[in-house]
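Quick log. Single chain, no ligands specified.
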Amino acid sequence: MAINIWRKQKDSNNIPARITRLDKPSLLDWYNTTLMELGASFDRYRHHGSDLEQLNELMEILNNLHKEIGSRERNSH
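-> predicted structure:
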């Protein structure tokens, strides 16, 4: 599961170095994987009583991935 690789950072204002070091294809792969895990985690939360904290972590990871991809797009134009 992707969540084990992405330990939550205390400082949520900065994108973690482990994300900024990824090449674009890897960023896109992790974005896709995290998005799918977010859907599955939401289903577990909504229908099976799972904890909301995992959704919070996945949302933070997805947001960081999204910001990094967006940053690279802005810098390439």
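The chain has a mean pLDDT of 88.
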